[in-house]
Amino acid sequence: MTELLHVTDFAPRLHSIFRVETPIALELELAEIDDRSNPQIEQFSLLFTGPETPWLRQGTYKLHHAEMGEPEIFLVPLGPWEGKMRYQAVFSRLIR
To answer: Percentage of the chain with pLDDT > 70?
Structure first.
């Protein structure tokens, strides 16, 4: 997926599963979407949860989703919470 990703791409997929195949196979749930956009800037973050171990290091991953295809997203591990590992992806861009 080479086009820009928008919050509207993810909103209908809240609580759905995204699969990571490499470097390890994991299923991540899109657990939260925080949209802070305004008329000048599109700014949102995604919170994914997955198994506590094994976990992914910070980096760009191809996420497989049945409806979205394979977006590549930069994920940052936030640490474990309530038995699951949390990952955040942040998007920020000027609106033209």
So the answer is: 98
